[in-house]
């Protein structure tokens, strides 16, 4: 097991290198001079001299490959550099934003699972019933409804008309009251996908011979579904949920923006708009590590769900 | 049976929803016995009448909040009037557009704007709500020579940490800006030295005669900070009406009343500022009561909010200008008549009435809005006149020679025009779309390009553009030099001038004279003349001055919009009615 994990971690290195090279060159070729953008205040005018000073101070006057190598060298020494804009360590920004996004992601994931797994199972067991059809229509709606639209509707209903929950904001460190609406907004989208997958993979499992055998043995329907079918049906669902969680952790720009949640998605988009190269690079590498790590955890978890899967020989 | 139960449940849920959607309850301003939103001697009389049972008792007459209305309330109201007892101003929830991203240090980039809006920091001079330069932490200045200024400080001002405001604190604060490591230090290149002459006088020497010297001290960048503060990034210590309490970067900032404010009693007890970049969300927060006041209402929401009896919308012209950069070197725009024709073809009234729903702006005649003392009131600007536009184009050899409703240049090619813009400000796209149809009305084939603002800048720098629709604040420090020099002085080397490629020797020398002229009237005369030439020659086309629209609950009393977008919370705001 440990060998397998080490191997996977080792495989990460070329992937991360590639991510950093690609993101470095993409932002470089995007139009816009970071020195100028960053020196521009809310009002417009830029003092030409401050732009020049800034360029030299931040090393933006050096050729691209040198800039990249300097950055890479610093990262290898554990230094993600300083944000061009705030002149504060990139890592501090990421840490703060990730904390907000992580909270939101976990709650969204819970929302998504609580909705999707039972719905998926029930739909599969009562295939083609009214219940099944309405769940799947609901799921299609959930998939097609844009996040921001759902978010605004929830905001109007629970915030403005009913006054049950705060419309938006982060509260004190992202408290439960403020997290509910954005989490439902994010959670329902992925719940819809997961519910559909849960249903189809449950149907497949229920059609297997061993289910028939179990039923023939006289095993109660509860055990047939809960133990025999569900465990087998969960494998693809876990993969999907893992991927979804990976996406959630990258932060959703739209949901974070409309709810004023100071998370990672907003940080990345803001940094791109401001051409804050150091911050973009830091975020990209961070997100890549996150994504790979989540996938690794998902792969490892298969073993516990299905002991037939074995990595040592793989 | 089962079904009935289900419907019963739905009924209960629906009625519970209806019951909980209560209408907002007005706050009580304790002490405001006659409920005119003010606490003054009339309230004393009113309470006395209540005690004598001449008038019915009201909750608001219970100034000391002990549940009874008696002579103690009279005394308490008198103490409030004398500012001996704290004003029951309540706490305010405000929702703002932009907030601090990484620090609360006013000397870092533009973060000073946010901490100033929160009422924590103050500057030596400021602009009041009429855009007049007024002393704040200073009491005035004496100009000793063209380059030497003595600034007299207000005595008896204390920082939130108890330290007195003196010349050393001012020297220290300005030193943080002029220090080379500060990314905005070049804007203060004109300052040669800042020294403490005595405890309450600071002498500033400039490298050359520089008329905007005092105005440059109004930028929140030059907020006066306590020299003893150890962590200005996270724990700001200023002199303002409000003291720092807590913050969550990019999310919120809360402040509490400064009980020892030099300017007198601060009415609000505390304020929480929440930063939400989405306009629809801000409007929803105002409607739900999560916010008492919301800045930057989206124009389509204004009528809904105005219709709510508990909410009010206030708006005022600001110093933010929406305008076109014009490439004056590219044919046919290099012909002054073509630029003027386009100016005549644009119906600014229509832009304001449709794109801004009549509430978001005021048609522009020149660079400065009429609320700004430096505006040239004589300017006629361009009024919508299609005939005149077509005449001018014809003079320039541009006519519809083949009768296809599209104008042709003298070489027979169609007159095409590309207008670039960006969409980060909500008003940009709708406005430029109206302009597009107006220009198409007279037969110009217009293409819109919506890009990121950096891509627009890149195109302007390379010269590969016709016109670009843009928005700038024209005088954040309250001085006209800021915009005029950067945009129209071809000797100053600013990007903005490089984009229009405009050069006029008369304008250059007028602007140079204006910068050195210390007499306000003579100085204004120079700017007036320069503006006249600029409007005539149209290297930039001025479309409208933005109006700030702020929505607030009717409970919020004493709020004023400051046109320079720098001041927001003041000691005079409070909640009560």
Keywords:
heterodimer; A: 314 residues; mainly alpha; MetI-like fold; 2 domains; 13 helices; globular; B: 577 residues; alpha+beta; eleven-stranded mixed sheet; 17 helices; 19 strands; 31% helix
Number of helices of chain A: 13
Count of discrete alpha- or pi-helical segments spanning 4 or more residues of chain B: 17
The radius of gyration of chain A is 24 Å
By CATH, the architecture of the largest domain in chain A is named: Orthogonal Bundle
- pLDDT averaged residue by residue of chain A: 84
Describe the protein's architecture and organization.
- The complex is a heterodimer of chains A (314) and B (577).
- Chain A has 13 helices and no strands.
- With 314 residues, chain A is mostly helical.
- In chain A, helix 5 packs across helix 8 and helix 5 packs antiparallel against helix 10.
- Chain A starts with a helix and ends in a 9-residue tail after the last helix.
- In chain A, 40% of the residues are buried.
- Chain B is of the alpha+beta class and 577 residues long.
- Chain B is built from 17 helices and 19 strands.
- Chain B is globular and about 90 Å long.
- Chains A and B meet through helix 2, helix 3, helix 7 and helix 12 of A and helix 7, helix 13, strand 16 and helix 14 of B.
Write a concise synopsis of the structure shown.
The complex is a heterodimer of chains A (314) and B (577). Chain A is mainly alpha-helical and 314 residues long. Chain A has helices at residues 2-29, 34-39, 48-57, 64-76, 90-125, 130-144, 147-161, 176-206, 209-217, 221-249, 253-258, 264-273, 277-305.
């Amino acid at each position: 097991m440990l060998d397998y994990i080490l191997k996977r971690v080792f495989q990460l290195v070329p992937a991360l290198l590639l991510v950093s090279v690609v993101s470095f060159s993409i932002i470089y070729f995007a139009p816009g001079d970071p020195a100028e953008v960053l020196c521009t205040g809310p009002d417009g005018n830029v003092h030409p001299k401050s732009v020049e000073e800034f360029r030299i101070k931040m090393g933006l006057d050096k050729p691209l490959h040198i800039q990249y190598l300097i950055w890479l060298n610093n990262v290898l020494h554990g230094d993600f550099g300083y944000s061009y804009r705030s002149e504060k360590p990139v890592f501090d920004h990421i840490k703060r934003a990730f904390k907000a996004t992580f909270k939101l992601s976990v709650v969204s994931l819970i929302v998504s699972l609580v909705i999707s797994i039972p719905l998926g199972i029930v739909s599969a067991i009562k295939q083609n019933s009214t219940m099944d059809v309405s769940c799947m229509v609901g799921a299609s709606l959930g998939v097609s409804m844009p996040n921001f639209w759902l978010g605004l509707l929830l905001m109007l209903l629970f915030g403005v008309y009913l006054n049950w929950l705060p419309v938006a904001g982060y509260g004190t460190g992202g408290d439960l009251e403020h997290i509910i609406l954005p989490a439902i907004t994010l959670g329902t989208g992925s719940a819809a996908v997961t519910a559909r997958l849960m249903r189809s993979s449950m149907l497949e499992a229920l059609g297997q011979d061993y289910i028939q055998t179990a039923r023939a043995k006289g095993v109660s329907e509860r055990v047939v579904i809960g133990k025999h079918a569900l465990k087998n049906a969960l494998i693809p669902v876990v993969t999907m949920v893992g991927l979804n969680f990976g996406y959630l952790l990258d932060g959703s720009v739209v949901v974070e923006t409309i709810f004023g949640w100071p998370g990672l998605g907003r940080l990345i988009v803001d940094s791109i708009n401001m051409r804050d190269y150091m911050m973009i690079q830091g975020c990209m590498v961070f997100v890549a590590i996150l994504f790979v790590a989540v996938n690794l955890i998902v792969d490892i978890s298969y073993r516990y769900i299905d002991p037939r899967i074995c990595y040592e020989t793989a | 049976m089962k079904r009935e139960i289900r419907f019963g449940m739905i009924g209960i849920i629906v009625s519970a929803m209806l019951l909980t959607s209560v209408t907002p309850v007005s706050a009580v301003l304790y002490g405001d016995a006659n409920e005119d939103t003010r606490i003054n001697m009339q309230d004393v009389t009113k309470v006395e009448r209540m005690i004598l049972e001449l008038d019915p008792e009201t909750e608001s007459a219970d100034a000391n909040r002990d549940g009874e209305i008696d002579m103690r309330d009279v005394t308490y109201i008198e103490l409030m009037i004398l500012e001996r007892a704290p004003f029951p101003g309540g706490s305010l929830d405000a929702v703002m557009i932009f907030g601090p991203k990484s620090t609360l240090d006013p000397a870092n980039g533009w973060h000073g704007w946010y901490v100033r809006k929160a009422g924590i920091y103050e500057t030596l001079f400021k602009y009041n709500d009429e855009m007049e330069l007024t002393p704040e932490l200073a009491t005035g200045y004496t100009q000793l020579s063209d380059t030497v200024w003595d600034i007299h400080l207000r005595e008896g001002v204390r920082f939130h940490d108890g330290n007195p405001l003196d010349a050393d604190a001012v020297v220290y604060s300005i030193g943080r800006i002029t220090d080379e490591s500060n990314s905005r230090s070049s804007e203060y290149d004109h300052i040669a030295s800042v020294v403490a002459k005595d405890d309450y006088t600071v002498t500033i020497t400039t490298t050359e005669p520089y008329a905007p010297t005092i105005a440059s001290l109004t930028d929140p960048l030059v907020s006066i900070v306590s020299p003893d503060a150890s962590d200005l990034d996270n724990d700001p210590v200023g002199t303002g009406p409000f003291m720092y309490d807590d913050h969550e970067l990019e999310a919120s900032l809360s402040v509490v009343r400064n009980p020892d404010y030099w300017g007198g009693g601060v009415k609000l007890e505390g304020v929480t500022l929440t930063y939400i970049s989405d306009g629809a969300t801000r409007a929803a927060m105002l409607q739900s009561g999560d916010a008492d006041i919301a800045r930057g209402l989206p124009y389509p929401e204004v009528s809904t909010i105005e219709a709510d009896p508990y909410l009010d919308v206030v708006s005022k012209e600001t110093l933010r200008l929406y305008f076109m950069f014009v490439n004056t070197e590219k044919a046919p725009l290099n012909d002054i008549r073509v630029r003027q024709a386009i100016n005549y073809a644009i119906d600014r009234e229509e832009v304001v009435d449709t794109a801004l729903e009549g509430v978001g702006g005021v048609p522009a005649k020149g660079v400065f809005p009429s609320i700004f003392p430096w505006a040239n009131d004589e300017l006629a600007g361009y009024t919508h006149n299609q005939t005149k536009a077509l005449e001018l184009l014809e003079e320039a050899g541009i006519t519809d020679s083949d009768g296809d409703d599209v104008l042709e240049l003298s070489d027979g090619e169609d007159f095409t025009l590309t207008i670039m813009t960006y969409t980060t400000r909500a008003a940009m796209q709708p406005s430029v779309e109206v302009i597009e149809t107006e220009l198409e009305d007279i037969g110009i084939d217009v293409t819109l390009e919506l890009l990121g603002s950096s891509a627009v800048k890149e195109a302007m720098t390379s010269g590969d553009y016709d016109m670009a629709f843009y928005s700038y604040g024209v005088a954040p420090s309250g001085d006209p030099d800021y915009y005029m020099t950067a945009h129209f002085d071809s000797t100053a080397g600013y990007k903005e001038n490089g984009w229009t490629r405009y050069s006029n020797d008369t304008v250059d020398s007028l602007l140079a004279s204006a910068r050195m002229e210390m007499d306000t009237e003579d100085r204004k005369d120079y700017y007036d003349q320069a503006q006249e030439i600029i409007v005539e020659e149209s290297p930039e086309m001025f479309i409208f001055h933005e109006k700030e629209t702020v929505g607030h609950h009717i409970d919020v009393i004493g709020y004023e919009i400051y046109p320079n977008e720098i001041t927001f919370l003041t000691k005079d705001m409070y909640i009560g009615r």
